[in-house]
Amino acid sequence: MKSWLSYTLLVIAGLATQLSRGDQIIVAVATNFMLPMERLETLFENMTHHELAAAAGSTGKLYAQILNGAPYDIFLAADREHPNNLIQNGAAVAGTQFTYALGRLSLWTREPLLADNLSLDVLASDNFRWLAIANPLLAPYGVAAQQTLDTMGLWQALQTKIVRGESVNQAFSMVETRNAELGLVALSNTTAYADFAAGVLVPPGYYAPIRQDAILLTRGEQNPAALAFIHFLRNTEAREIIRNAGYSLP
Question: 30, 161, 193, 235: which could join 78 in a potential S-S bond, CB 3.0 to 4.6 Å?
Fold first, then answer.
């Protein structure tokens, strides 16, 4: 196993040899992280002259694509398990996995009648028809939503009201378009929303920590741009972008 120091030295060497034009990478990104990813992409390209393209999807879907040979260099997942499994499958580089963000879950609505004095108590009421969540089989935020409802003793009682999106972004879209009155979504989905809406944070004790991990994939192991981006995610400017997007930092 190569030490983290070895990768840092490779990053420095890669950056030192770059001229006006750098290398290219494709980063697989959990959909909840796309807003800060757009800002990180701009900053990274300006700082390094490398070129970055992001491919968004649910963590489970991106994981399956990686195992099937998708040409990704880095994986920014919404959990720890999928990156760790990629190491076991030989698709990712051991020693490069780290937590880049801690996700937070929010109950969110665009319905004026529900927005006033919004609280988690509304989930036990008859004041809504549909609750949007991400699919727990595909998305870690869906797992967190299910755990929240389990904690409240409502998971089974709400089965006829729950609608599932493939990703937390799809669950957010259902509420945004008012096809569902309520949604358990990522706080990061809601922070930049400018139209009328209301949200309340779900207490962190209601669900297991959403530790979002990054990992270098084997395809990117020799790519200076991939090594540079892994290093870049840890710098002060990148961490501030992540914090401002509604995440906690490890």
Answer: 30
pLDDT at 247 over 90: yes
Query: Going by C-beta distance under 8 Å and a sequence separation of 6 or more, which residues neighbour residue 29?
Result: 37, 54, 55, 56, 57, 62, 76
pLDDT at residue 19 tops 50: no
Question: For the stretch 41-60, what's the b/e string if a residue is b when 16 or more beta carbons lie within 10 angstroms of its beta carbon?
Answer: beebeeebbbebebebbbbb
Q: Cα-atom radius of gyration of the chain, to the nearest Å?
A: 19
Domain 4-102+210-244 has CATH 3.40.190.10: yes
Q: Which CATH class is domain 105-201?
A: alpha beta
pTM here is 0.81
The tens digit of pLDDT for each residue in 129-173 reads: 999 999 999 889 999 999 999 999 999 999 999 999 998 999 999
How far apart CA 110 and CA 132 sit, in angstroms, is 13
Average pLDDT, the chain: 92
Question: CA–CA separation, 89 vs 73, rounded Å?
Answer: 16
- The pLDDT, as a whole number, for residue 194 is 87
